[in-house]
Structure formats: structure tokens, C-alpha cells
Amino acid sequence: MKSLKGLLIIFLLVFTGCSDEILTKNDPNQVTSANFYQTEEDAVAAVNAAYDPLQYGGLFSNSYWSIGDITSDDAHKGDGGRSDGPAWWEFDLFEIKSSNSLLADSWADSYTGVYRTNIVMRELPDIEMDDNLKQRLLGEAKFLRGYYYFWLVRLFGDVPLITEPQKLGELRVSRTDKSEVYNQIISDMSDAADVLPESYGSSDKGRITKGAANGMLAKVYMWQKNWEKAAEFSKKVIDSGVYDLLPNYADNFEEEYENSEESVFEVQFTKGGPNGAWGNGSDGSIQHISTAPRNSGVAGLEGWGFDMPNQDLVDAFESNDPRLEATVLMQGSTIQGGKQYDPNWSSTGYNARKYLVKRDGFIGSGADSPVNYRVMRYSEVLLNYAEALNEMGQTSEAKPYVDQVRERVGLDPLPTGMTQSEFRQAVYQERRVELALEGHRWWDLVRTDRAIDVMTEHGRGDIQEHHLVFPIPQSEIDVNPDLEQNPGY
Question: Which 3 state secondary structure label does DSSP give 263?
């Protein structure tokens, strides 16, 4: 899948974003919508470019984990003062403004993805090509559109639902009720699950699979508290026999184990692409430089210290849980070149460890990290299934799936005879430590209606009901007055 990225591919899709009037200008040397969508190779290139926004700053290079972790009780923005990364500080302090750059990027980059998938779904049906490949490519595009909307609806609630490529005169659109958006997400991901393969050959490794579509469908249904459907689609992933837990938990975040048997949905990054180290043209992620400690003096480990774990997260781990060491840099942690981590590099005494590149002297430009982002791991599928079963009153049937996750890291199974309420809290706890600093925590708190209580108990009494969705970017309202701002912003 790392081969999906490419300057030419990006150029082709960005160019087709121009208006129909511009594209009707004839130039024999120019690529237009009229002469591009002709061949099987064109179809593949178009879908490849629809994947591209997953790697942008508004999604998995930056905003996804920043918002999911820093807004929660697991992490703080980090050192550097209020003027250093003010957009991150707004989430840490619940002072989120409509000018926030992380939200602006999330909106713009997600709708770029929506536009590109809409182009694919308009153009591919008319291309003469192998029908099985065509259906698969359309399935990939539908999953991607569903995922871009799943990110948008969680961030903003009601958002414009656009399912056809827009022309210049169609840019003023109003917000759609989130229930309709969720219906479209479910429709797209269901269609994708029907046609996508369980796996790919090595040259297509990293593309969206049937398991990714079923796993994400289960997660969407969990947001709607449709526990029967959440259990049904989680079980499809489990019963596929494609996935398993890696023996060593920490391997999930290493370059050598990309697209492993534990990875259900993974966003691909690569170092050294043609587009430079910064911005949406980059082939690499900025996560390494964002989260690596400040002032470490260790080659390849100099960073900004963002997404800084706090004591509350550290205390959430059981004393013999090896996931703590795999998740958090702390006193006694060994880092590049066998050096010892110094707690003085952080105001909390901790830094994030997941997704750091472990090679000595890794990067001259730390924005160019090649480490893929594991959006959904098989362990989450097991926990999703367990949570759904428990909510359906099947607590004893749910227990083995949590136990699998615990046994992988050498922890004892959960006690027998737990009540539904006790088991629910145990699942919430297991999710917190298993998925820590992977961008899940804030969304789990919101989804389970615990965000205000947990954050208030954590000393964040400034959180209010309206913070459960974020402000529509003012830059979007300025160009589209049909958009209404969320209450409280």
C-alpha cells in the first residue's frame, strides 16, 4: 500500500477537483476528466488518491491522535507554553475556538476525501475493465467515504452530507442531521463489506479489507448503542480467521510489524517520498517529532513533547502490566542507543512511546516518520465484541474475549461471576490501557456518556455539555453562510 502514494496520482485527482468549465478547455498535453477515467489503471489511480487524505494532518498524521488523547484524561498537550501549539492547548483546557487549526484541517481534509470518493463513484462504473476489480475498487471508495464521514460526525455532529461531486455553483450547503449521516456511513460500509476481499497479495497489502469494513461497522453501531449489530459485525471479523493477537504487544507500533495479523485497518506512511517532509504533500507522518521528548539530546529523539501522558494514565495500569512500558517513556525506560529516559524531559515525568521510531539517529527532519498508524487492531475488535455482548446481558459469554486480551500480556483472567455493571467497568478499564495513546480515549468517554463525569473528576470542571461536539470552523462558515455554528461556540 505504500506504493499507493505518488506525486502523479495526487496531481491527477487534485486536477479533477477543478470546475467542469475549466476541464472543458482542450489541450492535448493536459490531463482532464474527459481523458483520464478511461482505463483500469486510471481506476486504480483514482482510488489510490482517495486514500491519500487519510495521511493528511486533519486525520492520521496529526489531528486524530491529538484530539483523541489530549482532550481526554490520559494526556496533556505537553510543554512549551500556551504560545507553543495553541490549537492543542485549546483541547487540553476546553477552550476550543472556531478558529482551531486542528478542526479546520479535519474538516477540509475529510471533505477532500469525500470529494475524491464521490468522483470515483461517478466515473468508475463507466470504465471498461474487469468487473471484479471494479466492484472491489468501488467498495474501497465506499468504505473511505464512510470513514471520512465517521470522523466528521463525531467531531461536529450534524455535517453536510454530500454524495455527488460538487460544481462551483453548488458549494453552499447546509448541515444534515447526524442520523442521516450515520445512515449513509452504514450504507457505504455495508456495501464495502459485501464486495471487499478478506486479504490481498503483497503488492496490495494495506488496502481496505472485508474485516476492516465489518470491524468499523461494529464500531459505528456501538456509537448508536445498537448492541446486536455491533456484536454481529464484530463476530464476523473474529470468525473470519484472518486476524490474531501478536505475541508481543509492543510490536504493534514498530515498522517491522506493519500490516500484521493484528492490524484490521492501518494507514500507510513512508519516509523519503517526493513531496517533502511537511504538509499534506508529505508521505510521512509528523507523529514522531510531535510526541518525542523535548531537549533529550538523543539523536533522532528530539521532538515537541506533545501528547504527554499524565500520572492518572500511568496509575490506570496494573503493576505487572507490560503495556505500560510499551506505551509510556518513564524513569528506567531504555531508549535509542541503550540510553536511559530522563523524566526531566517532561513536566509530567512521562512521554509517549507508541509510534516513536526506535532506530538510532532516525531523522534529520522529524516530520517524515514512516511508521504506519494502526487505526483498528484485533484486540479492539475483541473488546468491542465483549462490550456488545455484555450490554445484551450475555456477560459470561463476553468474558473470554476480554481474557484473550489480558492473557496476551500475561495478566490473569477477569474474575468469574461479575455482574453486568462490574463487567462494563472492567471492559472500559481494559480499553483504556490496551488502546492508550492511540487516539481512542476521548471518543470512548463521549460514546459511553462518561466524558463530563470523568473529566470533572479528573479536575477538568471547565468541561460543559457543548464540548461533546466541537465548533464548525469559522473559515467554513465564512465561505458558506448556510452552515450554522454548534451551540456554545
Answer: strand
For residue 28, give the C-alpha cell: 492535448
Q: What is the C-alpha separation between 388 and 391, in angstroms, rounded?
A: 5
Q: Give the whole-angstrom CA distance, residue 124 versus residue 38.
A: 9
Alpha helices in 259-308 (DSSP H): 287-291
Work out the average pLDDT over 273-294: 77
Write down the residue that cell numbers 519516509 correspond to: 271
| 399 HSE (CA, 13 A, CB side) | 14
Which of the pair, 106 or 15, is modelled with greater confidence? 106
- Sketch out the chain's domains with CATH numbers: 1-185+449-480 (1.25.40.390), 276-371 (no CATH)
Q: How many CA atoms lie within 13 A of 335 on its CB side?
A: 29
Q: Per-residue pLDDT for 49 more than 50?
A: yes
Q: How many CB atoms lie within 10 A of CB 409?
A: 20
382, burial (CB in 10 Å: exposed 0-12, middle 13-18, buried 19+): buried
Per DSSP, 364 falls in state S
Number of DSSP helices (H) and strands (E) in the chain, helices first: 20, 6
Q: Are the CB atoms for 469 and 155 separated by under 8 Å?
A: yes
